[in-house]
Amino acid sequence: MKRTGEIVLSIIGIVVYALCAFAGFAGATVLSNEQLMSDMANEMATPQMSASDVMAMFDTMSGGIMLFAIVSVVSLILGIVAAVFLKGNKKPKAAGIILIITSVIGTIVTVLSVIIPAIFFLIAGIMALARKPKPAQTLE
């Protein structure tokens, strides 16, 4: 049985997760530049919010972006493993479970930040679990 639909959806999810990981690491790199963040904090400071408050906000954002990037990389790796399991119809049930769990946990941990690639993984996982193999034909 061919698993082309599941593999294509998994690959689309893998590509989008790779883009998310790249964006996350790029954002974390920018937020780790102390001089740039200090200059931005001084420009964004208002009477209600001091520059140190803005820097604290940037520190919080940096942690969230790094979590986003790490979850994207882990999901990317699990997606590749699931696609390999689907290739050749080796372990479709295991691949479906991996895809569904990855999409649900990744979406919850990142508070819906990776919902688009997670939808691709979820659909591919459901397809992998729902598709039944054709019964073997008996020779009569």
TrEMBL record:
Ranges where the DUF4064 domain occurs: 2-108
Pfam families reported for this sequence: DUF4064
Key words of the record: Membrane, Transmembrane, Transmembrane helix
Highest taxon, organism lineage: Bacteria
Residue stretches spanning the membrane: 7-31, 65-85, 97-130
InterPro entries according to UniProt: DUF4064 (IPR025273)
Record protein name field: DUF4064 domain-containing protein
Source organism: Virgibacillus siamensis
